[in-house]
Each structure stands twice: as structure tokens, then as C-alpha cells.
Amino acid sequence: MTHLYSVTLGVLVVAGLLTLVRLVHGPRALDRIMALDVIVTMVIAGTAVGMTLRDDSTALPVLVVLALLAFIGSVTAAHLVEKRKGMR
Amino acid sequence: MTLLRDVVTAVLFLTGACFCLLGAVGLLRFRDTVSRLHAASKAQTLGLLLILVGAAVNRPLRDAPVLLLVALFQLFNAPITSQIVGRTAYRTHAVDRRRLFSDELADRLARDGTPLREQGGLTPDKEEGKNPDDEDR
Fold it and tell me: What is the CATH number of the domain that holds A41?
């Protein structure tokens, strides 16, 4: 089963790389915010898979911190864009 | 029993990862900020939730509440972020209005007496009202 978990990690990495292309490419700040949010989600998912893979719960608080950080970060950034209209 | 648990976890993990991948592909290929929002939220909610459930099945029971907490955060996070990003996209003219089937916000703003074309769908907000609309364009 560990192989399948590793495959899951591989799929998540591919998804993260595809999202990274959107993050770099833009074209708007909103697209970047969204891509960053999705990447953080994938990091959370990858950490959960890694926890299962290594049979180790040490990374559990990291999940909570990342989830909170993703929320605060993207909401703040989106508000910033709304204030500075036309920001690309 | 352990085998069954592992199989369930593997299926949940792979399904969740596939949703993440589909979300990423959609994020890359859709041509509009709002369409991309639609693709991104699939990866954010369904993909992550399936993976968290898979981890909860496999990990000891005391990990489950924390994983549940993360899932709840994510369930709050995704719609709120989507709503804010969508609204900002609408107000910064990132939405192609001709492609919309129904544009309820425009009706509402028209009823409130905010002309859309000049104001870009702004609500009467003092701080934003000061800035000229096409500052950086």
C-alpha cells in the first residue's frame, strides 16, 4: 500500500507544478492569489499523505497552521487587490 | 483488517489526488478568472477532504479531531475566498459580462442607482470612490 501512497504524492506534486505554472503566468493578481491558495491546499494534502506514509503524527499541527494561514493570506490579499483596483 | 483499512485509505488518497490534479488542470486551462475559481474550489474542498478522510482512517483515533478541524477550516476557507475573489474580479472588470447567462449583481447595482459602465460595479464606498477607475490600465 505504501507504493500507492507514494503514487498519491506524485500526483499531488504534478498538480502542484501545474498550479505553479498558473501562479507564475498570472495574468492577474487574483489568479495568482487563487493559485497560491490551491498550492497551500495541496501542501496540506501532501503533508497528510506523508504523515500516513511515514506512520508519524508529528506534522499534525502543521496542517492546522497551514489551513489557517491559507485562509488569512488569501482573504487579505484579495482585499488588497480590491482596494488597489487595476493591480495586475 | 489492516489490509482493508489500507485499501480504503489508498482509494480515498488516489481519488482526492485526482481531484487535485483535475483542479490544477482546470486552473491552467480555463480562460477566465471566474471559471478558474470554479475549477480551483474542486481541488480545495473535495480533493483535500477525501485525502483528510483517508488519513483519518489510517491514523490513530486521537489524530481524527485535528484532521476534522483542518477539514472545517478548509470548508470555511474555500467559499469565503471564492466569494471575495469573485467579487473583486467583477469589480475590477475581470469578468467578461457578455459571457454571463445571468448577471444578478448588475441588476442589483442598477437598482441601487450605481451605473455599471462608469463605476465598474462599485458600491458607494468612500475610499474607492476617490480613485479614478482606470488608474493603472
Answer: 1.10.287
